[in-house]
Amino acid sequence: MISGKTRFVPLLAHPCRHVRTPPLFNAECERQGVDMVMVPLDVRPDMLEQTVASLQAVENVAGMVITIPHKGSMAALCDRKVGAAELVGACNVVRKEADGRLTGGMLDGEGFVAGLRHEGRDPAGRRTLLVGAGGAASGVAHALLQAGVADLTIANRSSEKAEYLARQLAGFFPHARVVAGSAHPGGYDLVVNGTALGMHDGDPLPVNPLELDEGSVVAEVVMQPDMTPLLIAAEARGCHIHKGIHMIEQQVQLLVDFLK
Ligand SMILES: NC(=O)c1ccc[n+]([C@@H]2O[C@H](COP(=O)([O-])OP(=O)(O)OC[C@H]3O[C@@H](n4cnc5c(N)ncnc54)[C@H](OP(=O)(O)O)[C@@H]3O)[C@@H](O)[C@H]2O)c1
Questions:
Q1: Three-state helix/strand/coil letters over the chain
Q2: Active-site annotation, residues
Q3: What is the pTM of this model?
Q4: Which atom of ligand 1 lies at the shortest distance from residue 251's CA?
Q5: Do the domains at 7-107+249-259 and 109-247 have one common CATH topology?
Q6: Which of 62, 109, 223, 240 has the greatest number of CB atoms lying within 10 Å of its CB?
Q7: What pLDDT sits at residue 88?
């Protein structure tokens, strides 16, 4: 029940039709007995700074959850960043402290890895191709390395972003091989789509499914639609598929813990 004491957690996205986090987050708050509620707000990129400043001034805002396309810009608006957010320069959750300052975190990657483990697919030791170098992909890359992936190739449309991310992570995980490369998926045990491709009708596939090794795991961050064209093609190819919804299902508890 929403009351005058309920703390508000807006989810900032643009567009916001695709988001699936609010019902899961609100159910997790109810399960934990935490009096917070999430509602999606459709915020254009040119209005982000102004919106965040206004929300910062609202007393009962606990923080914000951030998704496409705002994760990088939001990191620049935080007073401080913690954990993976500091390293990858992107955040998907912001806590408003008692003095109004904003602390940014990045829990996408932890959620992704927890989702893999929950489905019995520990990523440790898997030769991995990650397509994407945006907010979600950066968090996923960091968490995969932390979880024991020792060989990670990052491919992105804007190759300079993949190169920058690979350099940052290689410095932080010196024992792993982290490189920017092409999106050819042959020879990998784990192939992750960390881009937004698959959300919209007519999107190109992030990798050529005919190049996927049979028996490899093909994982999505995109959760709407539930079965993306990549997952459909990968299943037909004989791969094990891992849906984007697993990432948010495992992440909601982390988000509530960060904000409560
Ligand atoms: N399952 C979950 O829990 C969860 C959590 C967070 C996010 N997500 C999903 O993850 C996706 C990405 O979100 P984000 O926050 O990371 O967004 P973002 O920071 O804007 O990054 C978007 C990424 O997609 C790539 N991309 C976009 N359009 C492309 C195109 N036409 N061709 C090739 N690459 C393209 C971008 O490449 P460039 O760098 O070249 O632009 C970039 O790597 C969204 O679908 C979001 O809903 C899911």
A1: CCCCCCEEEEEEECCCCCCCHHHHHHHHHHHHCCCEEEEEEECCHHHHHHHHHHHHCCCCECEEEECCCCHHHHHHHCCEECCHHHHHCCCCEEEECCCCCEEEECCHHHHHHHHHHHCCCCCCCCEEEEECCCHHHHHHHHHHHHCCCCEEEEECCCHHHHHHHHHHHHHHCCCCEEEECCCCCCCCCEEEECCCCCCCCCCCCCCCHHHCCCCCEEEECCCCCCCCHHHHHHHHHCCEEECCHHHHHHHHHHHHHHHC
A2: 71
A3: 0.94
A4: 3
A5: yes
A6: 109
A7: 87
228 lines ligand 1 (CB under 6 A): no
User: Where in the chain are the domains?
Assistant: 7-107+249-259, 109-247
Please give the distance, rounded to the nearest whole angstrom, from the Cα atom of residue 71 to the centre of ligand 1. Answer: 10
**What is the residue with the minimal CA distance to atom 6 of ligand 1?**
136
CATH dotted code for 7-107+249-259: 3.40.50.10860
> What's the mean pLDDT in 187-206?
97
Cα 79 to averaged position of ligand 1 atoms, centre (Å): 25
Task: Point out the ligand 1 atom lying closest to the alpha carbon of residue 206.
Answer: 33
pLDDT in tens, 102-130: 999 999 999 999 999 999 999 999 999 99
- The CATH topology of domain 109-247 is Rossmann fold (3.40.50)
